[in-house]
Design goal:
The chain contains 13 helices and 13 strands. Helix 2 links the parallel strand 3 and strand 4. Helix 10 crosses helix 11 and helix 11 packs across helix 12. The N terminus is likely disordered.
Length: about 325
Amino acid sequence: MNRRIKAFTILMGVLAMESFAAGQSQGTYEGKESVQNPMTFTVGVLQGPSGFGIVKMIEDLASLPQNVETVYQVIPSPAEMVARLASRELQAGLLPLNMAAKLYTKDAGYPLAAIPGRGALYLLSRDDGLNNWTDLGGKSVYAVGKGATPDYLMHYFLAEKGIDEESITMNFSLPALQLAQMAIAGRVDTLLIPQPFVALVQMKSPDMTIRLDFQETWMELRKSEQSYPITAFVVDPQFALERTHAFAELLTSYQDSIAWVLNNQDEAALLIEKHGIFAAGPAKAAIPNCGLEFTAAQYAREDVEAYLQVLLDSDPVSVGGSLPDENFYLAP
């Protein structure tokens, strides 16, 4: 579905939601379109690649229809984002998808409005003998994300490829920035790390090349044309139903912001650094490979459930013990 069709479909859906909200309810959420009092809509933005696509919105700080002023807060960690969403300090936020599902399942809060980012995970190495999955046997791999996407996908891919996990030594002891620095210093030869840290390593150590692309492996195994969804944009459901025009504009602006970042990478990288999201140099190099792609929630459900099912099978706690119900997908 191309971008114009998606934008049109979102608009039509929101107009339908407006009509629906006038006298009905969706799931447990009741609409009150007549509410027009001024409000401040605060969006939490994660540092790192999850925040790249929304940076034009942060810079413009444009108001939304229906008396809505926007504020953006850059937040350093997913754990802090969850805490601020749970306390209702934020009306919207960016989260790793599994954490968004877990938060929703825990207290039926913040449903999914969109997927603004897909996978950007790569295995880098100086080892010229490492060129495919079967070459991993007997290797030591440093990785980020114990108990998170890198860990779960590694388990899944090894099982699907018929490779014995016991033949590989995995080390999850270092955070992403420190692991990148160790690789640049020549103290780590093989590592599993996401963008933009891939770009950071390769800028300083050109001999560290991509040996395995987790996105390509996912698409191969799942027979899919798209990579796995990784970033969730969650929104207060009452806002979506009470201020339907504002919600529509929010989604359209986000989609436009991602397109602008992809088409204006030099300027976008400077804004990414200006707003404390990531350093401009590696951000610029990473933007084309960061999985920036906007998909409204109602069109992402199949991909979301496929990804969450892999995590659920590996560790039920990682997604809250079950897949989210249909009300997780914010749609008319």
